Structure formats: C-alpha cells, structure tokens
Amino acid sequence: MHSRHDLKPRASRPRFALTPVAWVAFAVLQGAASRAVAQDEPPLVLKPSPMLAETLPPAARDQQPTYVSGDKASGRTDLETVIEGNAQLRRGDTVIRADRLEYYQPEDLAKARGNVHINRAGNTFEGPLLELKVDAYEGFFLQPSYRFLRNNAYGEAERVDFIDDKRAIIRKATYTTCQRRPGPAWMPDWILRAASIRIDNEEEIGQASGAVLSFMGLPILPVPELSFPLSDKRKSGLLPPTIGLDSLNGAELTLPYYWNIAPNRDATFYPALMTKRGIDFGGEFRYLERDYAGELRANFMPNDKLRDRDRWGYAVKHDGLLGAGLPFGPVTLNLNLNRVSDDDYWRDFSRSTSSLTQRLLANDGSLTWSRGDFTLNARALKWQTLQDVTAPIVPPYDRLPQVVGRYTSSNLPAGLDAYLEADYTRFESNPVLTGQPNGHRAFTVARISRPWQAPGWFVIPKLQLHSTQYGFDAPLANGATTASRTVPTFSVDSGMVFERDATYFGRNFRQTLEPRAFYVYTPFRDQSLLPNYDSAANDFNFATIYTENAFGGNDRISDNNLLTLGATTRLLDPDTGAEAARFGVAQRVRFKDQRVTLPGEAPVSERLSDILFGATINWTPKWSLDATVQYNPKTGRSIRETIGGRYSPGNYHVISAAYRLQRGQSEQIDVGWQWPLNDLWGDRGQDLGAGNGGGEGRWYSVGRLNYSLQDRKLVDAVVGLEYDAGCWLGRIVVERLQSSTTSANKRILFQLEFVGFTRLGSNALQTLKENIPRYQYLREQVTAPSRFTNYD
C-alpha cells in the first residue's frame, strides 16, 4: 500500500492545526497576494485538484495517503494503529468514523466498533461493527442502516457484505425513498422488504431476492426476484408491467422485457394481452455503430378475435455509410420501411409506433453520394395506402426509381451563384383511382443569381430555366404518349434594414424596420394536358409568399407577373439581442391573371392578393403569443387564422391555447395544460427546480383538448390528474382519440411511480409527454448528485 508511510503512532488528541512553520508560510503567501493586488499583478489562482474529482480512477486511488485521528492513538509503526475516542480514518473518498478503530497495515484491514459510520463517495452506512479491507473495499458490516447518494434511498439490514468497491450484498434488508418524518408511529408509504439485495454500482442496478413491495401497509407485489435501477442507466431485465382499459381492445396487460445487449445495442420485447383480441407479440431492436445506426420494430398478433385473421406490422429505420474507403468517397444509405397487414390496422392499433398508425405508410430507400459541390441520389419509394370506405383517399405515386443529380456553387467568377438539378423519376399508381396514366418524367432546372448585399440592404436578381420531358404508359386526352415543357423565370428579391433606439412600456429596445420587395416574371406555358404526379398548391404564408412558384413539385410551373411587398419590424433587447416582438405584413400585386392551375381549380384573377398579418411576441419569459391572419380585403373577412399563446410562470405551470380557422373547412380550438390544483386554495408550493416537483402533497391537473367548432364535437382529448406524495406519484389519465369520422377509441390509464425504484400500471407518462406541450416530469434526474453533497 503506497500510503503506509503516512501512518505514525500518535500521542493524545492528534487534531489538525497549523504549526508555526505553517503560520509563517501562510503569512508569506498572504503578503505576496496583497503585493500582487497592490501592483495590479494577476491574483493568485487556485489550481484544480484531482482529489475533488467525482470518481477516483484506480491508479489515483492507489496513490492516496491514509489519515487517522482521534482522542488517543497507539500502535506499532508499519504494523497496526489503534485509535480510541472520536476515531477517524480517511483515504480518498472513503471516511470511517467510530468509537474505536483498529487499522492493521500489512493486511490493509480496518476494524471499527461502536457508532461506526462509513462514507464511500456519498453512500453511507452506520452500525455497531465493521471489518473492512480499505483499498479492496472487502468486508462486512453488522446491523447497519444505509443511504445511497444516487436516489436518496435508505434502509436497514441484518448484515452487509462488501464484495468490492462496486458491489455489496445486503441481508434481510429494507429499501425505500420515503424520508423519515417526526413521530414514533411513522411508517414509509412504500417499502421493499427482501431476504437479500445485491447492489451493483458499476451496472447501477439492485437485485432483490425474496422480495415483497408494500404500499400503504398492504403487500402489492410479492416477487421471488426483482431488479430495480439505482440510476437511469440501462440494464437488462423485466420492466414494470403496464395495465390499461381500452374501449376497442378491452383490458390490456403488457409485460415488457429489456435486453441490454451491448453499450451500442439493445432490444425490448413487449408481449401484450388484449382481452377482446388476443396476444400481440411486439419487439424492438436498436443499434448504433460508428458508420451506421437504426432500429427495427415489429408486431404480430395471431388470430385477432375481432377481425378473425392474423395481424402484423413492422417499421425499419436505418442510416449509415457504405464503402467509406472507396476512392470516389462514401455513399449514404437511408431506409424507412413501414408495412402492416390490412387497412384497419391504423384504427385498431392507434397507439403503435406513429409510422404504423397513419393511413399512408412509406417504404423508402435511398443511396446518396456527394463530393464538393456535387450530389447524386438514387431512391425507391413505394406507398401502402390504408383505405377507409367512409373517407377514401387517392394514393400518392410510387417512385420506382428516382435518380437526382445536383450541382451547387456560390463562388463563381463575378460573384455569381449557380444551381443545377437533373431528375429522372418513374411514377406508378392505380390509374383507376388517380384518373391519369403512369409514366416517367425527366426534368432539368438551371439557376443563376448575382447577390449584392451590405449590412443595410440586399438585391438578388435570379434567372431560372425549367425543362421537362414526359413519357406515358397510356395516351393522354389528346392521344399523345409524350410531352415536353420549357419554362424560364426571372425574379428580383430586395430589401432594406433600418434601425433605431426605442422605448415601449418602460423598456429600451433596438427597433428594426425591414421593407422587402420581390418581383417574379414567368411566361405562360400551357400545361393543362400534363398529368400531375407530385404538384400541390403552396400554403399561403410568410415562407412561401416570397417564392417564384405558386406550386410545390415539378408538374406545374405557375405563370407569374407579380410583385410582393412586405415589411417587418422587430424589437430586440439591446444587450442580449433577444427578440421581444416581431410584426409583419405582406401582399402580392398581380399584373395579369395566373392561367396555370391544378386540375379542377379556377385560375387566379385578383390583382391584389389576400393580406398576410403576422405577430410573434415574447415580451417576458412567462408569456408568448404567435398569430398569423390571412385577410381578404374584398370580403372584409379573414380566410385563415392561427392564433396561439402560452403562459408559463414557472416549473409545472403551463397553459397553451390555439385557435385555428380555415373558413369553410375547419375551425378548431386546442388547449393544453399542466397546473397544480393546490394553487386554487392558496398553496403555491415550493420552487425546487425542474425534475423535483413543487413539494409533497400536491395535486396537478394535466390535459389537452381539441374541439371542432364547426362540427360542435370533441375531436381528441387527454385529461388526467397527478398526485405528488414525495416518495411516490400517482396518475390517472382518460384518453379519447378519434379513429374515424364516426368512431373514437377511449382508454383509462393508471400509474403508480415509486420514486427512485419503479413504475407500475399503464404508461401514462408517455401519453402526457406526447400530447401536452411543454409537459414536465414531476421526477426527472437532470444531473447526477455530487459526492460532495454528502461529504464528511
């Protein structure tokens, strides 16, 4: 042991004190520091010490000296030391205190008796008798009480056997995180009693044998073997079962098992019993490597009793590099594969993975190569469309295949920017449903621009040429089996930025005024006979109003002769640059009718478009407001409105609301919240920070409601209650999801969370997190506790 030479037999009361030499050294340092300050020299800076590290590496631990102190010391040099009265032994992050301490140096063995207390990196044990090999941390402790730093759990035992510095076995043990309260009759709300508990701080798990979990004095979970986390580190084993009541599937019981295969691979198996359907065998596999990563999820239900058939679904995601050592550079592979057994899958299993609960399931694979300014992509996309007889949809086109090449350069001579794209795509779908023939399309887009920019203004002229060729499997209405189209486009984007200092409502700001003008000219080319494989009208908003084409995709290029005028003003904090408010307005002036349209739509003839108004306000961190209004000056009415706001005065206090109107189509209100009910009767709780709740004995209301004003009915709803008892949390959530135009799926979720131990019941937390904006967990360890928070 490297620290043996530091142990010396001591006389009475060897306390820490400054010797005369130390006093002289201290005075010299103090004088030096004073002279440095007086002479404007850099002050003395303390150097960080490895002794203050959260974890001590084995090499550093072997170098740690051993210190002993007490009222009376005796012994033989390099053999044994006996300390009596206030005895203490300290080495690195280990401290032993007792009434009597015997330390045998050749065996590195410490024997402590009477009021023994040991602190190892913040984990403490107290009891009458301890024998421990200090470096190996091997020994035993009789009748100890203990407390763990990670989750503040504690308990009592008949004996603790220390196997090494990472592992221990606690015999006839109790375990809880309910903190002691005054009164002799107090009992913890929940407690685990076990014949033995194996603690593994390296894997950060506990393994209880012969265990019984009691809640409010009632045994609720007797199990022969039970593992539980000591932190949020991954571990293999059975996860807590989930139980739920579903109006469609009946009672649901899921028994998940997690397999921590390797640090970069894991799998979860989650067989679920549905009383109305049968057993759904589900599983998920995830992997992460240096050059690739992905996940696979699959479900299989043999003989669904409600549908009288087998049900299955799978989802695969993969992203990675191929041929990293090839001379022409690596190729990126991306896969997104989704498929289910039948059209009713999205309705019957609405809480499966989001990719499998939609009506359009993508099976998409692509290879991408890039070098410098060049990019080449090859893609295959095939859709599975889940039809509903009450609301059929037209399936999108498969792309089998699509090959795209791109060139982008922003450092050409004379300050020019260039862009070139070439695309070949084969489109396939059901001609009966789409009403147009399958075929292939090849197009080329060439674009060149010359930006002029300065701190207060910019002008960007741009010239574009779009050329397209088609080939069809069946003739068009005019009998043609091929078609072509070439469309040029010229545009100029320009703007200015003015700034001034301003004061509003007692606050100083840097205010900007940013006018913008965008002109585009595209001559008319007749495209009425061309099929529409991928074009759709762009949404009318601030992002698209300054673009050249009114359509997305490449089958329709709108003819334009229009000018877009707009202005934005922002209020910026002069010290931080944070944006407190932004207001914008924009409108298009059309100089001639737009004749190119999508099939079945009328041409645009209004000279003045609707006016866009937008506002974003973040005046204080508590409040935020975001609004966009599309206003028609002819009718004097808004066409679309989106107004949303959020109020969040602190942790676990958030209310968000949004109003969305699309006149003649939909009108909805969306409200979400998380709020302590105790606030209603004046109990404001405590500010314990994120992840710690607001104090014990508090009720929280949580929920989200989506209501259709046009249909006068509730669309989706999640409403629940949470109770924080300090060492346990209770949740009950009622969920209603619209599964079709005429039916909805409802279920009730119950969950008990024993803080620092486990959760029982349905997975209500996932539902709340997915549905309520800015929802916060009442218990979430943001940072691991430091061993110095429990330092002796």
From TrEMBL:
It comes from the Bacteria. InterPro entries: LipoPS_assembly_LptD, LptD, LptD_2, LptD_C. Residues 309-681 form the LptD C-terminal domain. Residues 211-304 form the LPS-assembly protein LptD central domain. GO terms for biological process: Gram-negative-bacterium-type cell outer membrane assembly; lipopolysaccharide transport. It is found in: Cell outer membrane. Pfam families: LptD, LptD_2. One of its GO terms (cellular component) is transporter complex. Keywords: Cell outer membrane, Membrane, Signal. Component of the lipopolysaccharide transport and assembly complex. Interacts with LptE and LptA. Belongs to the LptD family. Together with LptE, is involved in the assembly of lipopolysaccharide (LPS) at the surface of the outer membrane. This is LPS-assembly protein LptD. It comes from Caenimonas aquaedulcis. The gene is lptD.
